[in-house]
Design goal:
Number of helices: 8
Number of strands: 20
Main location: membrane
Bound molecules: adenosine-5'-triphosphate
Oligomer: single chain
Largest sheet: 6 strands, mixed
Strand content: 35-45%
Membrane topology: Peripheral membrane protein
Order of helices and strands: EEEHEEEHHHEHEHEEHHEEEEEEEEEE
Number of domains: 2
Organism: Pseudorhizobium endolithicum
Keywords: ATP-binding, Cell inner membrane, Cell membrane, Membrane, Nucleotide-binding, Transport
Protein name: Sn-glycerol-3-phosphate ABC transporter ATP-binding protein UgpC
Radius of gyration: 24 Å
CATH architecture of the largest domain: 3-Layer(aba) Sandwich
Length: about 350
């Protein structure tokens, strides 16, 4: 069942259009994450769903009802902000109860819901404190608690973890995942953080200058990015991208990369034209080999040992360094000459002019 439906949603500030005809059907219970570079329109889109930003065009439906003109309080959704937006003069309990009180909810119901949310979020010991007497993570929990007690049909999160330190981010990310598994509430979540997007999302929407670049499950975006933009945006470290050429000989499509020619699999039924392409290879799809089999070779300029794996950066003579994933205890040293070749089943080919995927 569709919980939130966006059809041809547009936003303009004066003559400047920042959101262009966005179509998304968000399923009931789905966790949808909006990602994209700074200024791509993530917050604007979220704020339009929340009712905090006027919609310039299109239809926004929540629970099957057109809500374009409804104020935030009548949309049956709750938003959790980056800066928590708690009332500083109220206690945690008062902060959580405030929205319900304003609606005239029965006192017993308020108490029961606040107690329940406080247990779920483990903030019961702080109910009588004020926000200033809490840590960042505790404040974030209160902000979520305030949203939960309203029992809205959907939750909207605007970079909720970006003010927390690294360890707390991980902890709160797990909390949010657990909470979602338990409540199965429809959620739209804006983040800059790759790991948050990959781990929390049922589907990720990648936005690029106010347009949807791709929408799909995290691993689909990772393994089959529809465009060079998505390929470069999803995945850390970034996918290696190399200039190459598409050639067509006797009906056979091939890629010419440096002095090699390789058949392009899975491109047979496309209307392809010869020309410049970009080949993408993820760091984990490059394997060390002997010089005779190598596609690339170069001096190891930097080795980043992360504990779980090691990333090596090779100087191949091109402007860009080649990132290669090694095992965590790989016996490599800066200055070593290293040869690698790609896993041919995992290379990505994009048309240079349009950036669209060709294989
Ligand atoms: N009030 C405004 N008037 C004019 N332009 C605006 C206004 N608010 C936002 N914009 C523009 O709309 C675009 C989208 O902004 P938005 O804040 O949604 O981006 P974002 O993807 O959330 O960015 P960030 O990740 O940096 O928060 C930007 O180009 C921004 O400059």
């Amino acid at each position: 069942m569709t919980a939130i439906s966006l059809r041809e949603i547009r936003k303009s500030y004066g003559s400047l259009q920042v959101i262009h005809d966005i179509d998304i059907e968000i399923e009931s219970g789905e966790f949808l994450v909006l990602v994209g570079p700074s200024g791509c329109g993530k917050s604007t889109l979220l704020r339009m769903i929340a009712g905090l930003e006027e919609i310039s065009g299109g239809r926004l439906e929540i629970g099957g009802k057109l809500v374009n003109a409804l104020p935030p309080s009548q949309r049956d959704i709750a938003m959790v902000f980056q800066d928590y937006a708690l009332y500083p003069h109220m206690t945690v309990l008062e902060n959580m109860a405030f929205g319900l009180k304003m609606r005239g909810t029965n006192q017993a119901v308020i108490q029961q819901r606040v107690a329940q949310a406080a247990d779920v979020l483990r903030i019961r010991p702080f109910l009588n404190r004020r926000p200033a007497q809490l840590s960042g993570g505790q404040r974030q929990r209160v902000a979520m608690g305030r949203a939960i007690v309203r029992e809205p049909s959907a939750f909207l999160f605007d970079e909720p973890l970006s003010n927390l330190d690294a360890a707390l981010r991980v902890e709160m990310r797990l909390e949010i995942a657990k909470l979602h598994n338990r409540m199965k509430a429809t959620t739209v979540y804006v983040t800059h953080d790759q790991v948050e997007a990959m781990t929390l999302a049922d589907r990720i929407v990648v936005l690029n200058t106010g347009r949807i670049e791709q929408i799909g499950p995290p691993l689909e975006l990772y393994h089959r990015p529809a465009s060079l933009f998505v390929a470069r945006f999803i995945g850390s470290p970034t996918m290696n991208t190399l200039p190459a050429e598409l050639v067509i000989q006797g009906g056979e499509v091939a890629i010419r990369l440096k002095d090699r020619t390789i058949a392009l699999k899975g491109a047979a039924d496309q209307n392809l034209r010869a020309g410049a392409v970009t080949v993408g290879i993820r760091p984990e799809d490059l394997a060390v080999c002997n010089p005779e089999e190598a596609w690339f070779g170069g001096k190891l300029a930097v080795a980043e040992r992360l504990g779980t794996q090691t990333y090596g950066y090779l100087e191949t003579g091109d402007a860009r360094m080649l990132t290669v994933e090694f095992s965590r205890d790989a016996a490599i040293n800066v200055g070593d000459l290293i040869h690698v070749r790609p896993n041919m089943d995992a290379i990505h080919v994009f048309e240079e002019a349009s950036g669209r995927r060709l294989n």
